[in-house]
Amino acid sequence: MKNKLITDIPLLDSSESVAPHTEAHTPCTTPKITEDNALPHQRKLYIESFGCQMNFSDSEIVASVMLEHGFGTTSNHLEADLIFLNTCAIRDKAEQTIRKRLMQFNVIKRKRPDLLIGILGCMAERLKHKLLEEEKLVDLVAGPDAYRDLPNLVFKVDDGQKALNVLLSREETYADIAPVRLNSNGISAFISIMRGCDNMCTFCVVPFTRGRERSRSPYTILAEAQELFDKGYREVTLLGQNVDSYKWTNLERGQKLEELQEPKIEVNFAQLLEMVAKIHPDLRVRFTTSHPKDMTDEVLQTMAAYENICKYIHLPIQSGNNRILKLMNRNYTREWYLERIAAIRRILGNECGLSTDIISGFCTETEAEHQDTVSLMDAVQFDMNYMFAYSERPGTLAAKKYADDISPEIKRQRLEEIISHQREHGHNRNKLDVGSTQKILVDGYSRRSQEHLQGRTSSNKVVVFPKENAKIGEYVMVYIEDCSSGTLLGRLV
Ligand code: SAH
Ligand code: SF4
Ligand code: F3S
Fold this sequence. Notes:
Elements lengths: L1 H6 L20 E6 L10 E8 L1 H16 L3 E2 L8 E6 L4 H20 L4 E5 H7 L2 H5 L5 E3 L7 H9 L4 E3 L22 E5 L1 E2 L10 H5 L3 E2 L2 H13 L4 E5 L7 E3 L16 E3 H9 L6 E5 L8 H9 L6 E3 L7 H6 L6 H15 L4 E8 L6 H14 L3 E6 L7 H5 L6 H26 L3 E9 L6 E5 L5 E5 L8 E9 L3 E6 L1
Parallel strand pairs: 2-3, 2-4, 4-5, 5-6, 6-7, 8-11, 11-14, 15-16, 16-17, 20-22
Antiparallel strand pairs: 1-2, 9-10, 12-13, 18-19, 18-21, 19-20, 21-22
Helix pairs in contact: 9-10, 10-12, 13-15
The structure holds S-adenosyl-L-homocysteine (SAH), iron/sulfur cluster and FE3-S4 cluster (F3S).
Iron/sulfur cluster (SF4) binds next to α7.
């Protein structure tokens, strides 16, 4: 269930991240696992996913591929024949968490040598054969573009052959694979609209682990969203590392215009958003992640035009200082970012929810430059913020070009200052909602009590309220009576 996943973060290291809930590309270390779905004779697969929503979404593709090839799934790793870890490489801590988990599974494997352990996702792609051949912690390695090959890789392990596929593709979008929804609340689902990233932010490992950017066909995206709506889902979140650069065309790569049988079609993100929004007014549409350099007024105007496109934007700033932004290769300035915020306020008003990502202690960052980040936060007043200490990733441009010269202690101090400002801003923003009436989509019981339900506002805030006659999956109007820094408290009207 999305919200459960989002708030229970047992493995989260608070010194590294203080996300109040998971964002599409903000790693959440709560493993998401497969459900029980196996016939007696089938080999059972258990998948645990780490990292961002993109990975969780990929695990649903993996489950689909495996079920299609005669495997079953289980929610209990102790009765699994195969264990897959779908992994994240974004920061060193993420990889260490996964290593610990791999060790635990290897303890089980010592007693049950027939247990097959596979590593998938970004850490698999980054380390390639290392965990298989050098460390012998896994039997199978599959990168993010190799999931169609998984059944074959499993058969290779059975045959005693090397099972590794870390080829990245320029085309693969798994467009035709219907994901098997895992741990779903039956109300909210994620839809990947693109894969990879072409941006090359110097701190980031994603372009290396996920390859080149490619956009999925809008037809398959619409079909998937329609099917979800028909099954009773009421919210879809469109996922991509940089959704604003979504661009699909029917002209295939390498194909000449004169070879095209039909007129050339191009679909950008604003157009895709509109098409999904038109499926039904009762289907809420969210998306993430937006990139400050690419987010257009056209997208904002499309959001304004459709009530069911949620008024919430995750717009990572990373730093409020221009020299650092340049070193990060983010391709925008502080002034540009503030202008984009002004455009959001102009077109969508003050109610639009805003969140960001910030990295503290990037290479060579001075105290004064850090203060630029703090002052930018003060100016914008984000509702939410995913805050991280810089973690050097091998192979990235920053690792090659700049010294990781800010001490862990200073990174931590700066992070704490950022966090304390954010607490205040989040609370201030929540207070603005007290006294308003909000339409919320009820998505489950409150974590604390079965007498309370919870849902989200369009601006992505969690609202808890006494359940009365409200039902999960319904839209209700709630009067906001009070708030904490993380939650709104209300009653039905
Ligand atoms: N595509 C998204 C972000 C993907 S990664 C975007 O461009 O905004 C999610 C977040 O992790 C990033 O926004 C960044 O804040 C953080 N992050 C990425 N690499 C990191 C690193 N090496 N150290 C610390 N934080 C990092
Ligand atoms: Fe990484 Fe930058 Fe791409 Fe985001 S836009 S995934 S931070 S390279
Ligand atoms: Fe996501 Fe982590 Fe990969 S954040 S894209 S799973 S490196």
